[in-house]
Amino acid sequence: MLLVWQRHDQNEWARAIDSALGDAAQPPQPGADPFSLGDAEATAGILEGAGFDEMRFEDVHEPVLYGHDLDAALALVRGFQDTSAALARLSDGEAARTVERLRETLAAHHSDERGVVLDSRSWLITARRRR
In the beta sheet, which residues pair with residue 111? Predict the structure, then answer.
């Protein structure tokens, strides 16, 4: 059983963060893409090649909660490897403006009842090892 992100374009949280980072956002390093298993057909091929069959992909559509407090949510997102690397590439002034865009993005997804919540999609994959 695996739980993997669906494609990047299916995950509002990733699109929103990348949009706030603007030009500072970089594509993931080869082998480090958290969305690399998001294409169900391609992933089924990988699993089949590894000796699995009876694969089932269940769509998991649940929100991502970054916390109830906006400052804590911003600190969490700034701690993401890709976010911190993007901010490190910027001048101090550009980084400050980018952090403010991140704060605004998170604030747009904040409510007192739920906290900072963004949409996400994953696959819950089950398969059986061939004998």
Answer: 115
